[in-house]
Amino acid sequence: MDHRDKSGDDAERSSIVINAVPKIRLTDVHKRFGKKVVLDGVHLDVMPGESLVIIGGSGSGKSVCIKTVLGLIRPDTGTIEIDGQDVTHLNFREREPFLHKCGMLFQGGALFDSLPVWRNITFAVSQRNGHSKQQLKDIAVDKLGAVGLKPEVADLFPAELSGGMAKRVGLARAIATDPEIIFFDEPTTGLDPIMSDVINELIVSCVKKLGSTAVTITHDMSSVRKIASKVAMIYQGKIIWQGPVSAIDNSGNPYVEQFVHGKAEGPIQVEGKRA
Amino acid sequence: MNLLMQHNPVATIGHVFLLFLSSIGRLVLFTWNILSEGLRGPFYFRQFGRMIIEIGYYSLPVIGLTTLFTGAALALQSYSGFADFGAESSIPIIVALAITRELGPVMAGLMVAGRIGAAFAAELGTMRVTEQIDALVTLSTNPYKYLLFPRVIAATLMLPCLVFVGDIIGIFGGYAVSVKALGFAPIPYINNTWAFLEFYDVFTGLVKAAVFGFIVALMGCYHGFHSKGGAQGVGAATTNAVVSASILILLANYMLTEMFFSI
Hints:
Chain A is α/β, with parallel strands linked by helices and 275 residues long. Chain A contains 10 helices and 10 strands.
């Protein structure tokens, strides 16, 4: 009886997975800046609850890829869907409900210089609901706690924070509204290895706790192994490989192998490299 | 295309003209976006208040000193020229008219272009290159409403206030020099000023000031908002904001003077 129930549950679960609408879907997305083609027909699905890490060299189109999803950059052609709805050509007002579902940690933190940490963290919350100042401060302190920072940090200004602290505050701001989708743009760039690991751990725990879908772009392989459930590699504006993180060391793709092992020799040609 | 332009000056002129037209188009669209998005709300009163203080209160010393010395120098210059013709009695009205109609708004506009236009371009440019403007969007906040609209409206409203105060200080500068250095009697000087100065003179100066305030904020916002390329880009945006605002102020001044005072 128990056994039959379990297989019934499994069947139901797998049918849900098969029929699930991707949280994010990019279909044949192209983008060029002047003559430089940055995205050249990107196809990518991110399923609910998945933690996708996009890897690729500098200038390969990783950042542009997630900025098109958020509407910060408009693609030339192709479609972008969030929860099955086409968001490609929405104006700001139409896009707002989708932006409410998203949070983003920027590479440099992108904290607002003119606001103290607690106002930075609760910026989105304060725009949406009528919270009192004390309530907002309490939310900020709570989120600071979630990223391992003390309540005293709340009253500091961004200029007074170290690189690691700024990243953590940026993470606290990204998770402040409990978003369904979180984007991480090079979360460990510029940090020492220990702080990088701390940030990776925080990302994993925050994403797990919120049950969010995560999209991370990085070229740090230790981040990939820690954060990812699925990995996609972008090269010359195309997704050239994608698969589970467990398959990354045996991908059979020479581009991925060169990137994963950090070799100068291989099919990826780096501009300015000596022949 | 480039090769063609190297050999064909007409193609170069055409290319420059097209670039000019596309810049005008971008600026008009930018202005439309600020006003149409901003007027729709929500309104960020905290930002607006911050800008009012930044533009109105903190620019007051600069405007006061500028108009004070301008009025004083104007009285001295007028005296040295008019004394030869025995027309010294015209100095009070010359100072008052020149300050209220022309020098007050233009000097204030140029000073605010240097102070506020540059500050807007530098702040917004830094926000752009450090992705703070992108961060605003991801936090569901429209940068046109939050950053640009309060700046443009605050500058348009505050410059007339600054110019009004500047007019009074400038006239006082002329008065002080005339009475203390040129031997004018205080009461007749004031009576002369009052007798000839009309509401229309002050009003047209304040309208000019509102237009100049709009131009300064728009140029600062436009160049800052579209800056790119790190510190160098922010520097270029700041320079462009001040230069373009200054030129447009002088151009607009001529056009408004033509409109208000042409016979």
